[in-house]
Amino acid sequence: MLNDTFLTPAQIVAELDKYIIGQHDAKRNVAIALRNRWRRLHAPADMQQEIVPNNILMIGATGVGKTEIARRLAHLADAPFVKVEASKFTEVGYVGRDVESMVRDLAEQSVSRLRQRRQDEVKAQAQQAVEDIILDALIPPMKAPSAGNGSNMGFGISGESIAADGIPNSDQELNERTRERFRQKIRNGELEDRRIEINVAQSGPSVGIMGAPGMMDEATMSGLQDMLGSMMPKKSRKRKVSVAEARKLLLEEEAAKLVDMDEVKEEAIRQAENSGIIFIDEIDKVATSGSGKSGGPDVSRQGVQRDLLPIVEGSAVNTKYGVVNTDHILFIAAGAFHVSKPSDLIPELQGRFPIRVELQSLNKDDFYRILKDPKNALTKQYQALLAAEDVQLDFEDAALLRLAEIAFEVNSEVENIGARRLHTVMSRLLNDLLFDVPDQLPAGTHLTVTPQLVEERLRDMVKNRDLSQYIL
């Protein structure tokens, strides 16, 4: 995974170009925002708190790449990232999600990713511990008898010399040699199907907290539940499983024991505060109608906007892992703004998103490049799917051009859903082939998509003016 420490804005744009076609202005702005985070952390200490991120508002129709840009940006930054939909929030006092939950989601995601990394770091130690547990279940180690347990203190029953731990040397050595043989068998995978009995941690019943609504917020209640849950005795139960299953069940459990969760929580909160990215989609859905009236749903929409203000500007939010300050979290908002306009947002919220970028609608050439160039292009995805059946799939260049034209035409005549239209077109083109593999088209088949095949399979889609059935 790439680290923004080593990426200049131009390099960030170059990385985004591998997955997203066009939208150069949007890429430039997010690249600058990402590099500025590294610059802030390397600025003089007395200035770091003063430098705040320039939040970005992306405006454009659905399917032009808004979400993909934000997601790829978080991947490049190796940063905690959450995507939320503004339409799911309600203002305080209404039933629904409150806006602070987006910060709690970010903290949760940050802790989860860091915990997984810490567990990966101690994986070798955890595997050794799991190996020991499995070995003990197969060949239990011999234990020394209690002192004074019998009259034979100097010799064994058959006259063997007694080791310092009270176990006859021959028996102890035999046990150790047997354990080592079985340890080697475990490592060689020779005992994967052998069934053993192990103790598996069992989650106890959830702890409920009774209280009147509004007495405590979600984070406080969640924190109390976690605290009470941690005070409950840990339960385990015996299970008889194969060695292979035991390894899977025990590995995560043993790795978790080796991770310092207090350190993980502290570091995760720091990463969320300094590197976190929150992508707020459909922000146009909470914009007011612009008619000047303030009744009906506009009241709740304005309430959501007002609740967003302190979060985006910078405030302290309680989470079950600790307090998260949002001053330096990067917020990227996006919306199609078909019905409303960015100016329909309340002025205070508009001011919190000083960078505005308008993404362009996709044309025929964009569709063609989307099918051909990105590392995760749809054509490459279908090729990978059929390669799993040992079937080779190729696309003639003229066929890709025709597919791009059809996708553009359908978008123009029905509803413009951007690059998502390509999923509809490609599915209709290849579904019959996918169904026939491997029964009618066995392994070793070589398939080529030609312009003639595109015309044959998609003729009805082009001619039929009632295209409602193809709207996603």
Overview of the molecule:
The chain folds into three domains: 4-117 and 267-358, P-loop containing nucleotide triphosphate hydrolases (Rossmann fold, 3-Layer(aba) Sandwich), CATH 3.40.50.300; 124-144 and 170-258, no CATH class; 364-470, Helicase, Ruva Protein, domain 3, CATH 1.10.8. The protein is 49% helix and 12% strand. It contains 17 helices and eleven strands. The strands form four sheets. It has a five-stranded parallel sheet, sandwiched between helices. The two termini are 33 Å apart.
Q: Count of helical segments?
A: 17
CATH superfamily of the largest domain: P-loop containing nucleotide triphosphate hydrolases
Largest sheet, in brief, is: 5 strands, parallel
Percent of residues in β-strands = 5-15%
Secondary-structure element order, N to C: HHHEHEHHHEHEHHEHEEEHEHHEHHEH
Instruction: Output the strand order for the largest sheet.
Output: 2-5-8-1-9
Over all CA atoms, what is the radius of gyration?
Answer: 30 Å
Helix content: 40-55%
Q: Characterize the overall form.
A: flat
CATH topology descriptor of the largest domain: Rossmann fold
CATH class category label of the largest domain:
Alpha Beta
Cα distance spanning the termini: 33 Å
Tags for this model:
two-stranded antiparallel ribbon, alpha/beta, 17 helices, 472 residues, Rossmann fold, 5-stranded parallel sheet
